[in-house]
Specification:
By secondary structure, the chain is an alpha/beta fold. It folds into 2 domains: 2-74, no CATH class; 110-223. It contains 8 helices and 6 strands, in the order αααααβαβαβαβββ. A 6-stranded mixed beta sheet has the order 2-1-3-5-4-6. Strand 4 and strand 5 form a beta hairpin. Helix 1 (2-16) crosses helix 3. The chain crosses the membrane at residues 27-45, 52-69, 75-93. Keywords: Membrane, Transmembrane, Transmembrane helix.
Length: 224
């Protein structure tokens, strides 16, 4: 990525001097500007998550690979071998860091999410109110919404709604008063699901059409 940015500067100088620039220089400048602008725009209008900059990473890697390929013809075999060895070492280190870092956390959470989603998949149309969007949507096939939106918005009256809570789901999960507001006017069924993931056991609250006030009864009917 660094090589890609460094290679874009000489190309940009040739392009903006309005002379001596090749078609390849225009392509390099376009890719570099797109990569940098993508990061800047996402930083202004979206949450800062690594997954949103995949396009920028890809474009800069292409530019870097192109630069190395153009300059490598003048390097000696010893230098090329050293770079190849460094690349292999870096790939191994990156793999260990990813597998034992954030990826391990995501994988452990995924086990809980998939187990809970399997309990509600195949029953469409449906809506899942959860703190884990969009993962629960992917695994269950249902539409999803967050707890704040579910509490303040109007849940679809003719659609089965699932409120999915986890034993270790974090501080963003609603408390009892919020749950009563969310389930008001619906027939409520609760199912406890054991999972082996890091989020702990799941509690799936199913809201279906029923007599008004059914959701206000604190003695919810338990299933499972």
């Amino acid at each position: 990525m660094t090589a890609g940015l460094m290679a874009a500067f000489p190309a940009a100088r040739r392009v903006f001097r309005l002379g001596g620039a090749s078609p390849a220089d225009h392509v390099r400048v376009f890719l570099a500007v797109t990569a940098v602008a993508n990061v800047l725009l996402l930083g202004l209008i979206a949450d800062g998550e690594e997954r949103y900059v995949f396009l920028s990473v890809l474009l800069l890697l292409i530019l870097g690979a192109d630069a190395i390929a153009r300059y490598a013809s003048s390097w000696s075999a010893i230098v090329l071998a050293a770079f190849a060895a460094f690349a292999v070492l870096a790939a191994g280190v990156d793999y260990r860091v990813v597998m034992n870092g954030d990826f391990a956390v995501v994988t452990a959470e995924q086990t809980s999410l998939v187990t809970a989603a399997q309990e509600i998949s195949g029953r469409h149309p449906c809506l899942v109110v959860t703190g884990f969007q969009p993962e629960m949507g992917w695994y269950s096939g249902c539409a999803t919404t967050g707890f704040p939106q579910g509490e303040t918005g109007r849940l679809p009256p003719g659609e089965r709604v699932y409120v999915v809570l986890f034993q270790r789901g974090g501080t963003g999960q609603p408390h009892l008063a919020q749950l009563k507001k969310l389930t008001a006017g619906r027939h409520v069924t609760i199912k406890n699901v054991h999972t082996n993931g890091s989020l702990g056991d799941a509690r799936i609250i199913t809201l279906s059409s029923g007599p008004a006030g059914a959701g206000r009864d604190p003695a919810y009917r338990q299933a499972g």
